[in-house]
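One thing: mind reviewing this one?
=====
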Amino acid sequence: AHELEYFGKVPTLEWDVFLDPHLVQRVEVVLEARDEFLRGLASTSPRIDMFLKSKREERRYTDKMDGIAKYMRNDGGEKKILHFYNTEIEKRVLLLLEHMLIAHGNISQLALEQTGCLKQYNFSRVKHTRRTLGGGIFAKHWIMMYTEALKMSTEMDEDVCSDDDISTSDSSNHSPVSSAASSVQSSPSKSPKRKDSEDFALSFLPSTDETDSLLDIPRFPSRDDFCVPNLSSDDCNKPQSPKSSPNLKNTMKPSTSFHDLAMAAISSSSIVECMATLKRIMACDAPLGLVLDIKSRHVPKRVWGLILDALRDMGARVEGIGTFAAHDIRDISKYCAAPLKEMIFYHCAGDLQQACHDGLIRRGDSVFFNAGSLFWNYPARKDKDLFLKVIGNAMSWRFDAEEVKKEYKFQPYAKAQALSAGKRAPMQQSTRQGNDDDCIRYFEGRSSTIQQYKEHFDFSIGLYVQEFAIDERSMDLLVKYVNMHPHVYDLGLSWGGVNGVTVRGIQPGRFTNTDGLWNQRYIGVRWDGDLYPGRMQ
């Protein structure tokens, strides 16, 4: 809200997302059935066969294939069958998107996800995990709360949003039961010809419960269902006093805080309606900027392509998709209607170095690694001084966290050449940069540097930290370091803390570091200072 007030836009947000494997399978079933139907038509029609061959293979699943309709016969119902498949795919993708879980997961859940085993069980465990321990919230509920929060923060008049946010009735005097009944009676019945076409289309789908229409999903009660009789839906959304509304005074019972909480939790708004509200609040066509960090592994790229296109069609500004497994998103733009930036995450700087030598990095890639690895490198076995220091801290009677924070230093591979007047100026390999009170210091030693790998492979670098495991001194040094070398870390430093402030009370301990690396230090790879870009291991 503050960003919207002062800068006119909301910064890009990152979502760590899990997909429901059951709903993914539902989408896959219809995609395969539609492709089988099209291949059957191609075997009898040379024009359709030529059209399919001219279409990029990746887009055969994610595109609606409307261009093929002009080659179909009108009498055989082929166009209606294709329309049925496209409609069913849209509904199932929307359901998958609404139940996409925005959560990080804990260590055991992330480890089990890597194996690809017990995916439904693992998704259920993440869904039932407390949010403070790695659990999360469905995307539908997140966007609802986000929209309501922006409406409250910007003091937007509810009269502007009531038409689209809450489904209103045409009559001011009705009951919820009669409204539901009338909606059922007014639904048009299927014509015999349309029913035959849909029955033929369903023959391509497996005869399981997965083919049930999504229209049969029960609707959650809306605020309109709890409106007081003789009041319009608009009146239900407006705060009214008993003096101005005699009907409200005579029929409405005194409200309790528990009742208010229950009413606030009920909403019939969908993601599409919430995005429409966000567009009006922010006065733009793409009000929500997103970067998806996918936690679900072994999901087909065509399913991700459908989700990304659906988000963009709703009005979300999807600026990138990232993962720790590069092959899960490599060339995913081929499955999308528009190009998309691929972001590869690593635990430590050493993981990035190893990926470069393993051929996993392409020129122009966007990579992120934990900035805490600029302070900490996995110790070598011959580094006896470090082990003696750890033992000394554990055995000493006195431990001062402030003294420990004063000794923070960057690793030798973090050294970079500064820019001067638009040109790179040679930097003296000193261990200090800045004044004595607030200087950036480096450990002694010669090593290959991150800047050398950036210039050789021509990729963009960004940093992130674990916000709950970093102290204010580490954060202050990282911010100044990144600002000193924007030509190296051109994607900046990502921060997700509350109001951009570290949590108070985070201090280093005898056996714990608060550099933001957290437990990723035990997973990452050590940076090899003797290894340089262009050289084989």
User: Anything to note?
Assistant: Residues 156-161, 166-191, 207-266, 425-430 have pLDDT under 50 and may be disordered. Residues 21-42 form the longest helix (22 residues). The CA atoms of residues 326 and 458 lie 17 Å apart.
